[in-house]
Amino acid sequence: MDHFIFHAPTKIIFGKNSELQCAHLLREFGAHKVLVHYGGNSALRSGLLHRICQCLQEADIPYVTLGGVKPNPRLSKVREGIALAQQEDVDFLLAVGGGSVIDSAKAIAYGCANEGDVWEYYAKKKTVRAALPVGCVATMAAAGSEMSNSSVITNEDRWLKRGLSSSFGYCRFAILNPELTVTVPPYQTMSGCTDILMHTLERYFTRETPMELVDGISYALMKDVIKYARILQNDPRNYTARAEILWASELSHNGVSGDRSLGDWACHQLEHELSGMFDVAHGAGLAAVWGSWARYVLDADPARFAQLAIHVWDIPACDDVRACALQGIEAMETFFSQIGMPICLPQLGISLTDAQIDELAEKCTFFRQRTIGGFRTLDLEDIRRIYHAANQR
Fold it and tell me: Which InterPro entries match (predicted)?
């Protein structure tokens, strides 16, 4: 690896009851009036939102609330948040929830601090000049938005899903209490574990010459997630497993396991269009396309896949590198199946028509304006073939 950038400015507060420090942190980072942004009823039923608001009241920090964020967060909610924040003269956003809530808060922060419609920054990549500060209380281990500079928003007009990475997109602080993730349903928990693995894999599959140390971190991180995901299947309240998975979600997406800009990211682009069209869980969508992508690009560097098989799945090295690589792909898919994740689109409840495949491929290329993939470059026809393969397996 000849060059990379590592930047992880987010302050982390990890452990039991750490959410009770939110008011102190807001004061530390200069908040005067806060928009508390959250998702559905879970934050209300669990009492978490009440505890957060009580902390703010006791610290005399004015706040307003906005709930209703959905998985694959919507542009309409972002625009509602921008209007509310501007009306209430908010100067800090506190996201209470998972990656969707954090992404929505980041988008609101951009919309409040930059001219024009916020969607222009996601869809047309207008340059971000500033953002309101954002902090978060994370309730799910998955996206790693807490420590990354990225966010993804879905526009209900044509159901386009677009991402934005910016130096202004880092949370100032992230509160990580593993106990808050216990209420996440099993399917979403395993979808989150898959997302963590995929964030690591996207960085692992690079055309750059890898560093042995970075590869070692990636292998250890993936083995850790695989081990503790299996434990959570049988013991969903296991604190140690919840803590391991939660911290893995941060390390998978904060640059420790590789520079984001040097990775592949084709599977994420393929999945974004699927979840934009069908509103599926992100991790599940990634699992459904990964095997088809892996087999399609395998011959770009079979040895890279073989090393994954050897170091993560303990598959013995052999002279037939390609055969070893295929065993590793099969082992990954077997694990996905074991934790209840789909390994093809029909298992996700989707049966694509040819017209839908064409539409997905067009959207994935930004209507023929780009290719995708860093490990192997994929054009419109390559993307169609991968969707076809995932649709037929």
Answer: ADH_Fe/GldA, ADH_Fe_C, ADH_Fe_CS, BDH-like
CA dihedral of residues 261, 95, 101, 256 (deg, nearest 10): 30
C-alpha to C-alpha distance for 13 and 97, rounded to whole angstroms: 15
Q: Is 212 helix (H, G, I), strand (E, B) or coil?
A: helix
One of 1.10.1060.10, 3.40.190.170, 1.20.1090.10, 2.60.120.200 is the CATH number of 186-392, namely 1.20.1090.10
Q: What is the pLDDT along the chain (393 residues), one digit of tens a residue?
A: 567 788 899 999 999 999 999 999 999 999 999 999 999 878 888 899 999 999 999 999 999 999 999 999 999 999 999 999 999 999 999 999 999 999 999 999 999 999 999 999 999 989 999 999 999 999 999 989 999 999 999 999 989 999 999 999 999 999 999 999 999 999 999 999 999 999 999 999 999 888 999 999 999 999 999 999 999 999 999 999 999 999 999 999 999 999 888 999 999 999 999 999 999 999 999 999 999 999 999 999 999 999 999 999 999 999 999 999 999 999 999 999 999 999 999 999 999 999 999 999 999 999 999 999 999 999 999 999 999 999 997
Strands 173-176 and 11-14: parallel
Question: Do 282 and 191 form a contact (C-beta atoms < 8 A)?
Answer: yes
Provide DSSP, 276-338.
HHH---HHHHHHHHHHHHHHHHGGG-HHHHHHHHHHHH-PPP-S-HHHHHHHHHHHHHHHHHH
Among the listed residues 136, 328, 337, 331, the one whose alpha carbon sits nearest the alpha carbon of residue 246: 136
Pairing of strands 173-176, 160-165: unpaired
372 in helix, strand or coil?
A: strand
Show Cβ contacts of residue 109 under 8 Å, excluding neighbours closer than 6 positions.
93, 131, 132, 133, 134, 168
Specify the DSSP element, H or E, that contains 173.
strand 173-176
Q: Where are the domains of the chain?
A: 11-181, 186-392
Q: Taking a C-beta distance cutoff of 8 angstroms, is the pair 149, 165 a contact?
A: yes
Which residue carries 């987010």 as its tokens?
10
- The owner of tokens 């677009």 is 162
Residue holding tokens 């890898």? Answer: 210
Cβ distance 222 to 205 under 8 Å? no
**Helices 212-234 and 239-251, packing angle to 10 deg:** 150
